[in-house]
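Hey forum,

I'm writing up a methods section and want to include a predicted complex as supplementary material. The small molecule is zinc ion. I've pasted the protein sequence and the SMILES. Can someone with a working setup run it? I'll credit the forum in the acknowledgements.
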Amino acid sequence: MKDLTSSFIQKVLSRYKVEQRKKVILGFVALFALVTTAVIMGLPAITATPELICGKEEHVHTDECYTEEKTLICEKEEHIHTDECYEKAGKLTSQAEDEMVAEISYEAGVVHDGSSFSVKLLKDELIEVENKDVTGLHIYNLSLIRNDKFVEPDGIVDVNISFKEAIAPKDEETEWKLYRVEITDEGKQLVDLTEDKETVVHVDKKQAVTEILFKTDTMGEYALVGENERETETVAPETKKPIVENKITSETTKVKDESVANKSVKSFKQKANGITVSVRANEGAFPDGTTMKVKAVKNEKVLNNAIKAAGNKKAKAKAVDISFYNKEGKEIEPASEIRVTMQAKEVKENENVKVVHVDDKNQAEVVKNTETADQVTFKADEFSTYVLVYTVDFSYGEYEYSIKGESSIMLSQLLKRIKDGC
Ligand SMILES: [Zn+2]
Ligand SMILES: [Zn+2]
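Reply by user p_vandermeer:
Happy to help. Structure tokens for the complex are below, copy them as they are.
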């Protein structure tokens, strides 16, 4: 966690990083932002320093370089460093044996001159993810080498990984995660980079991975892992939830309209945090080339706000951040209302699931939704975090249960009551 926090801070800081030389005014603005950020974060600022690559010494002839007869006696060459004398921003690319291509791009001074970048596919590794079945596993080793030594970048690099052939999942339930493999005293540990807002795992309609984008300041092992929820021994509900009838008619009409009128309806599907998000957007809602990004949201404040808005303090919450990007990678909102479906185990197992929208200012609002067997559907034109708020039914393997008319009860109390017959 500490690691995620510090790398997040570095990311924030790196956004404000501006070439120091000669850009005085910009420099002051950046410095202000940097200092403000550093003060807020309570950490020192980190900036990369581009190294000199001209190999020359700065020198301008002075009177001492001449004799009284104005003959030059100085052996030094006149030279004043310019931008050309320093390392520049750049890119390095490498290809793994499975034709995965990794590219790192960096700002001036982050990767030093004479470094080479290499990526290797590691096959003989095993990874265990708690409570998940691993259905896909690709581990790569990223390394930077300078003067025959492994080195780390002096700041954040943007990593772009693309696959010549999309990596297909075992089934469409697969959720893709990108982990950094951290080597600690207790062995290898996984740091989930998918939770990072800057990480994007692009999938096609079949949930196959086409491209991965992330930021890092650490080379080493990275694992792309396809995960499926492991079936746990929970008691299945006696009856499946009845389909909510009232809103179905209008939904059906809507679908019919779309199929007739729109040939360029756009649909997206992605899974994160155990929630499968499917979106259907009418023609004109998004430009061509739009992509959707779904991320797990685990921020306690956001979840608590949603629970408060839903009006049940004992409820539980699970959230995702949904966002859309145009071809150029700029975040966009739909031009008109679109239909969103969230499918999750929690919806299937619990009744009265509420959908709460939490905006960037952390304002929470309950969204009108239709709930069917294992999914909720709603319409929206503003995107950020959507939270599923649910109360846990007592046929499930949780330790706290909610019972009508009572706030909550512990499993032990419940069992005691059943035994005592009250
Ligand atoms: Zn001189
Ligand atoms: Zn120079």
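Some notes you might quote in the supplement: The first helix runs from residue 2 to 15. The chain has three domains: 1-47, 60-229, 248-391.
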